[in-house]
User: What shape does this take?
Amino acid sequence: MTENGLERIECKEDSYRGVPDTFDEMHGHDHSIRDHWKPLISAMESLGDNTLQQFQTQAERLIGQNGVTYQVHGDANRENRPWKLDLIPAIISENDWKTIDAGLTQRADLLNLILTDLYGSRALIRSGTIPPELVYSAGGFLLPCDKTYSKGNKPLRIYASDIVRGPDTQWWVISDRTQAPVGVGYALENRTVLSRIMPSLLNRSNVQRLSSFFRLLRTTFESISPRKIMNPRIVVLTNGPCDESYFEHAYLTNYLGYTLVKSDDLTVRDNIVWLKSIDGLKQVDIIFRRVADRLCDPLELSPDSISGVPGLLEAVRQGNVSVVNSIGSSVIENPGLMAFLPALCREVLGQDLRLPSAGTWWCGQKTELQYVLDHVERLVIRTTYWQPGSSAIIGMNLSRKDIKRLKDEIRSRPYLYVGQEMINNSTVPSLIDGKLEPRRAVLRCFLLGTDGGFRTMPGGLTLCAPSRESVIADYELGGRTKDTWILASEPDDHVTLWRSEDEPVESESVLTSHSAECLFLTGRHIERAEGLARMFRRVINDYQELDWVKSTAEIGHIRTMLGALVDLNGGDDDDGLLVRDFQLEKTRRKFESQLTQLAYDRRKSGNLASTICQLNTAARAVRERWSSDSWRVLQTIEDHWGSAFSGHHPTLTEMPPELDTLINDLTAFTGFNAESMTRELGWVMLDIGRRFERSRLLIKILQRSMVPLMDDVAEFMTGESILSALECLITYRRRYRAHIRLGPVLELLLMDESNPRSLLFQLDRLTEHLAKLPHKHMSQRLSVEEKLILECSTRLRVVVSDHLIEPDNESKCHINLGKLLRRSEKNLDQAADLVMARYFRHVNHPQQLVPLEQEI
Amino acid sequence: MRYQISHLTSYTYSETVQFSYNEAHLTPKNIPGQVCDHAHLDIEPGVNNLNERVDFFDNVTHYFSILEPHNELNITANSQVTVIPTCPLDLEVSESAWRTDLEDIVGSSDEATILARQFILDSPSVAANEELYRYASDSFLDNRTILEAVTDLTRRIYNDFAYAPQSTSIATPLNKVLEERRGVCQDFAHVAIGCIRSMGFPARYISGYLETSPPPGKEKLIGVDASHAWFSVYSPLRGWVDFDPTNDMSPYDRHITVGWGRDYTDVTPLKGVIYGGGRHKLVVSVNVTRL
Assistant: This one.
């Protein structure tokens, strides 16, 4: 960097005005740039504004494509919002980090010991150090968890701490997260995005890497397995796609190589937790839970709900499974505890608390209550029991009326409230419309409890306030996040998970019944969406060509195609599309708009729009199984079609290019999967779903278009259209070099085992796949579903096309073809039902056995 | 006094239950003045697991799961308990007025008192409120000791509230019971606990049994055909003292304690999560005989 360069920066950064009386992480008092920010700022300066903005756009695109989302609580639409990342990292100097690291490891140690005591002997309560009201009044303390913590096993393994820096440069802790802290995966994703966009900058800056932290996490988790075995089974327990940070659950699961499960994937038998997989029950050793304490076990923890795994807490008590963090750990998230930490630290650790908490007044004490009531306007008011979605109340933002109401609430249940000093937290530069502007920030740090002590992740998630004036950094209120760089004096060794020193161990891949079902459904929906799109495209094409030649045959042909299309869409013709006259100018418009609605109206079940919705739901639920390319394509489909659905529908002429793109994307998704998924059970399930659906669509189309008798012209036109919609026209022409006739068309579409679009081809694949599925009873005999498929394919192999096209003048149809199709359909439907019944979850929904019994 | 207790709980389901996970408080605990000599749980159909432990309040707690399909669940809890009568309360002993006790409780560094403070706080089924406070105030006269006040409160609940089985369910809110002035023993115990907590004293819920047939010359007590409930109040001087508002008496030797907690939800005799089952019907019978 040249002298000039630096000068230029300082000139330019004159436009960066700090917030008065506030510490700025980048700027010193004299507007000079702090040393540890200089390399970044000068590097960015050399890039220029445009490049920076391009980088930001690129980052946003990457995040969109990777499907990084966070749902906002209380958001009426419950939409997945893209994760918001500000390209400019927050930089922490080595010295600052030493202070933070030492302070947080001490705090984690302390909290872990308090947690152990509270569910153990409760000496801290008996001695009067912690007032019983503070613990027992808050919802965090769960009586059933009493004495469930085993000796020597830290109940606190993952701890997150939110810290801020005040004007006097001091760092303060403002909250502790100990249940299932959100953010560690997002922090990792932020870093991944930055290292893709500005790799050289990251490398040059001696930024400490995150990967060693995750490697340590893996070895630590393995060490706490109750079964001392080589490869303990670790599952990540999630609430599913409805959880605001579901992305993170799936992301971490993939990164760490675990299995993502929902509570109904687990069952307790013999005091052991089992994973329901499609080849039976598998013992679970460690549950990395991403759900709240109360949602772990409905038998003991949530009498009014059914979420969780009944018997889980008992399995923990019996020592057969480790849960991270231990159930009940939310008790130490209680902010009231902060008021007692200095005394506790001396009593428990014999040390002074290194990193102070923001001033805290717990209203369960008289003097403190009075102080809080007198100073509400200047304080942050928190409740002693934090629940996801609840946020702190900022006194200064309240109206007079609100303050009165709040004070009344506090007076009526003082134990439940805590007043906390409002720290004038420091600002960091944020990239806003291409310019740097100061935003207040909170840093969330993550610690891992290893048997050798707590280790801090050298990085974190920095959260910025949404505007310059805003005093609080809250993601739910629209703040943005930053990658956080901890500078090292020495360059860090590049260690990643896959280059760990451990011997690579092959872990058995497990397919949960739930995942199997979602993959099967993804396969069905992807195939259905593609089939519908192709059929639509062809129908629109035929319809548009109609303007030129208006023969009766052609109109009949259009009607046949429309009939097939309506059948594919579920068969209901509520709008009367099939009887509408589209030859007259005045009714044509209506007809066209109804045709587009048939594709786009999400309220119609089974149509293209709702199929894409279902596809997204199913694919999202197995988020962790898609390669990044597959996911990117899915995201593109959702982005494009999601917005198309909510806005106005395109016109008929606008549809074909959209359908082209959709078909490309769907095929790309299938292609990526075919090239990247190992041929294990997951793939088999996905492909079984596809093959069943493709067979079903084909049968439906043929039933409507080929079974009724037609004249030669119609037979030609319909044959050509169907071949084209089924992507077989080129093959037909090459092979038969002839006029399109029903016989050869059926040969190609039904009985040709080399044609990947033929029915027989689907049946052959199904035969192969079904043979690979684990059978409940090991035997050499075929399963019923295998027999059904065999019956169906044998029938196709022996049938002669001449027999199929024999006309039956009485019923005016190809009666033999109709029979064949009907029988095939029945075989396939039965087989699909059997697969679903055999391999998917079919537990009844649990219910609480309401204790009706009254004590009289 | 020795008692033989037999407590039968029987669930009949309209649809088959596939799995069932349960927690039971059916075995009397050992406490000063009461020894459980023998206890046995008999469960039909057979269990996958039956684990015994003591819970947070040292109550005997059983966890069991049933993994075979069933349409009926029968649990028989048999036990033999020796009850050593406690001295009847002597209210004449000079004690300070209740307000002084209240200050002692809040500022105490005595371990037993610190631990009792948990029972002043709101619990899942009992939360202190204005109405309860108002009802209690008539008993908490300035010159009374805490036990005098609670004795009076017990008598008032006995007189003011109608004993009316089927008038309430376990889901009936406390204020509705207070308003309508009727309920069963569980409601009366909850009302008393709510009143006492509203005044700032610790009170806990006790679940147990009563002797079924009265000894010669004594009256049959109310609440003998199922499990019974009463409450206990904490006095810094005397510790925990029991009262039975359903029978307006101080339990002496005809009450057998199974367990205690903050309210009914902590000592529910039987609760569970079942898969399947549809609607269910419950039959309970209790028999307590003097040996």
